[in-house]
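Input record (Table S2, row 387):
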Amino acid sequence: MLQDTNILRIPGPSPIPPSIQRAMSQPMIGHRGIETKELLQRIKPKLSPVFGTEQDVLIITGSGTSGLEAAVVNTAQAGDDVLVIVTGAFGDRFAKICESYQLNVHRLDITWGDAVQPEIVKDYLKNNPQIKAVFSTYCETSTGVLNPIREISNVVHENSKALMVVDGVSCVGGVETKMDEWGVDVFVTGSQKAMMLPAGLTFIAVSERAWEVIEENQQPRFYLDLNKYRKSLNEASTPFTPGLSLLFGLEQALALMEKEGLAQVFQRHQIMMEMTRNAFKALDIPLLTSDATASPTVTAIQPEDFDGEMLRKQVKQEFGLELAGGQQHLKGKIVRIGHMGYCSPADVIQTIGLMELGLRKLGKDVTLGQGVAAAQECYLKQEVSQQ
Ligand SMILES: *Cc1c(COP(=O)(O)O)cnc(C)c1O
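Output record (pyridoxal-5'-phosphate complex):
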């Protein structure tokens, strides 16, 4: 096999654009110097629109999970009643973080592959008025579901005083996010998914209402105390040494998004999702999620008459194409394709084409090009509908 080939189509980490790679190789600078201050000042106004907020977005050096943990320790304290919507492995992680801090966790478990219905959240809150915060994933990466955050946030605010906290790690930067308009109180994302960077930074946007809770919250915390990050960011600084190389990369990532246009970035993800789904429909391979609940950043297929793990192994060995498997009880049952961040319709066509070859090699009776053609047709239609 051609060496140094790695077609990374897993739902994070995602590939890095060359210009971001180059930006990250800049020599180190002093984190208390004027250059870092100016860098943060340039980044600030460009990061907020990605979240759809007027608030400054806090930057913590740490993986996405540190952002989730920060969201928990800042908005709640031991003994508080919180509702965690669990639509997959990452909702489950949110629940486990809450349990670690001895919150009184109410789990709303939804069948994996489905999105949560706002009505259920509404009923739960009406029966449990003591709930102080509601935690939900936006894109549930383990299934490829996009939860209806706007609607959930509405029912939360109409039926309770709870804060709405959202894990947007695998979609913010690739999917429309309107934090202020939707009334989301804390929105978290990570660097290695739709933001086109390596892992290592987490971004957190906080509403005014959430700040009131955070300022008063007695929960012990140090590195993840958001008050520190807010105070520092107001001075264009960070409380601790930031991952500076990642910040160099972030500035370039935001420049790329700005040049393409945020609306176009979101549209590109939408098109990639539709192309991928149409391809597997044409190949008669079941999808895990419905069209109405599918995420533009990741698609899960449910193999019935072939071994998904064998397919993953095959395309990895032969073409360097890396796909993801299932998590927890979906392990070995689904194959997940990431199409987020530095990924285009051209990449989707390549992925489908290689998967068709892999399927044939496994002995599955597929007509070569059938999935690719469906993706191509879909691309053309999408192009027309956008004009
Ligand atoms: C990737 C991911 C995370 C964070 O994972 P880290 O490995 O800590 O960066 C959290 N939530 C979702 C939905 C994710 O996809």
